[in-house]
Automatic annotation (TrEMBL):
This is Peptidase C69. The keyword Transport does not apply. Residues 228-459 form the Metalloprotease TldD/E C-terminal domain. Pfam families: PmbA_TldD_1st (PF01523), PmbA_TldD_2nd (PF19290), PmbA_TldD_3rd (PF19289). Keywords: Hydrolase, Metalloprotease, Protease. The lineage of its organism: Bacteria, Bacillati, Bacillota, Clostridia, Eubacteriales. SUPFAM superfamilies: Putative modulator of DNA gyrase, PmbA/TldD. GO terms for molecular function: metallopeptidase activity. Residues 22-86 form the Metalloprotease TldD/E N-terminal domain. GO terms for biological process: proteolysis.
Length: 477
């Protein structure tokens, strides 16, 4: 999109009044969305957003300016605005931009722009029809959403880094509403990946829709969930909501450095069960949170944050890494050119263990099986959480029993991880858009089947402390 010479001039302008570091992030992003509701296509839209963000770091201060004028003059004007925040005298920077190569590569088989709108609409209609076919009387509403994003980025910084990248993501979301006249229940499923339209060669949209609708119908006859402390088995299919929300955010370096995390200053300490290993891996193929480079031009890599229960690392961007005199580990992410980067998760998971998932259920005399997680809230400072259970079953004498509804899980993320006593050999993924400081980022979360010997079941996921800034509301994609 822009040649190196122009970018070098922009960086020189950004550091014209001093400063320790500057970068330029240029973005060209095309987004397509299709929505179907009440049996008809409600929207088919697409848009193009082009712009650039320029950042200047001076000591602990960060200045950020952005513009949708990516001409040379437009970039220089934004750089001049950002440069006014710099403190101290001008430093001598000799910027020689060198192209950075990724440590992993991804290919896109069917680019979204090469697929006709009619084909995309056909996927949505097929999913909607499949959902309604589950039970034509009880399924009252089906909402289907399709989306694809083609994002091209260029980044250059005063350390000499030059990066060009392209990210293509495709997703499908189905929400079904069922009613028997007295009760209303919902079922939800979402699939997505760092890929093009080939997503639907790997995953049948009809199967996704039927799963959502079936869950909604089954929940109509489900019994009220029991209340109290009990063993809970979380299936791999439940996804990694627990590890992402109640643990992952606490491992982001900006929160640990501000002492807003229970994991602050605990590197080398035992913070979880020895059966628990937590990693974030943006290099995984076909995962929604994957990328070649983060949004600061750092090649993606696998990062192990907790190894056999011991805290080993945090997730860093450039700024937080610089504060600790180390290198970033590739987790500086931003929603768009209008936002400065922050330490963010990508594909976060509890690593698989060695126990057969079926054996975990058999070894649990009585308790609750969580097959699918819902929304909820978490206090990112303390790790306290309340999560909805979207699909759950009683466990009786080591067997899966009746379906239950209205269950919630209440506890503390770090404390729960400490008492996990069985970890399965499977691994299940879910996708979502993670919110932080007003920014959204595509992520995947995963976990194997795990057993928590005791956790509080029951209550409500809507707390009274709505004005607490540390309370994070969790919404599905």
């Amino acid at each position: 999109m822009l040649d190196k010479q122009i970018l070098k001039e922009v960086l020189d302008m950004a550091l014209g009044n001093g400063g320790d570091f500057a970068d330029v992030f240029v973005e060209n992003k095309r987004v397509t969305g299709i929505g179907m509701e009440a049996g008809r296509i409600e929207r088919v839209n697409s848009g193009l957003d082009v712009g650039a963000g320029i950042r200047v770091i001076s000591g602990d201060a960060t200045a950020y300016a952005y513009t949708n004028d990516i001409s040379k003059d437009g970039l220089l004007e934004a750089a001049q605005i950002a440069s006014h925040a710099a403190k101290g005298g001008k430093k001598d920077f000799n910027i020689d931009l060198t192209t950075v190569k990724p440590l992993v590569d991804f290919t896109f088989e069917k680019r979204p722009e090469d697929i006709k709108t009619e084909e995309k609409v056909a996927v949505v209609k097929s999913a909607e029809k499949a959902a309604r076919s589950v039970d034509k009387e009880k399924i009252k509403q089906v909402i289907v959403g399709y989306g694809d994003t083609v994002q091209k980025v260029v980044l250059a910084n005063s350390n000499g880094v030059f990066m060009e990248d392209e990210r293509i993501r495709t997703r499908l979301v189905v929400n079904a509403v069922a009613s028997d006249g007295d009760t209303i229940q919902t079922g939800y499923e979402a699939v997505g990946s760092l890929c093009g339209f080939e997503l639907f060669s790997r995953i049948e949209p009809e199967a996704v829709a039927k799963q959502a609708a079936t869950r909604a119908v089954q929940m109509l006859s489900a019994k009220p969930a029991p209340v109290g402390k009990m063993p809970v088995v979380m299936a791999g299919e439940a996804g990694g909501t627990m590890v992402h929300e109640a643990c992952g955010h606490g491992l982001e370096a900006d929160l640990t450095q501000r002492n807003l995390s229970v994991y602050a200053n605990k590197k080398g300490q035992l913070v979880a069960s020895e059966l628990v290993t937590v990693v974030d891996d943006a290099t995984l193929e076909d995962k929604y949170g994957s990328y070649r480079f983060d949004d600061e031009g750092v090649p993606s890599r696998k990062v192990t944050m907790i190894k056999d229960g011991v805290l080993t690392d945090y997730l860093y961007d450039y700024l937080t890494a610089t504060r600790e005199k180390r290198e970033s580990n590739g987790h500086g992410r931003r929603e768009s050119y209008q936002h400065k980067p922050l330490p963010r998760m990508a594909n976060t998971m509890i690593a698989p263990g060695k126990t057969d998932p079926e054996k975990i259920i058999k070894e649990t005399k009585n308790g609750l099986l969580v097959q699918k997680m819902g929304g909820g809230q978490v206090n990112t400072t303390t790790g306290d959480f309340v999560f909805d259970v979207a699909e759950g079953y009683l466990i009786k004498d080591g067997e899966i029993g009746s379906m239950v509804r209205g269950a919630t899980l209440t506890g503390n993320g770090p404390e729960v991880l400490k008492i996990v006593d069985l970890v399965g050999s499977d691994l299940g993924f879910t996708i979502g858009t993670c919110g932080k400081d007003g920014q959204g980022a595509p992520v995947s979360d995963a976990q194997p089947t795990i057993r928590i010997p005791e956790i509080v079941v029951g209550g409500t996921a809507h707390g009274e402390d709505d004005n607490n800034p540390n309370i994070k509301r969790i919404k599905r994609l």
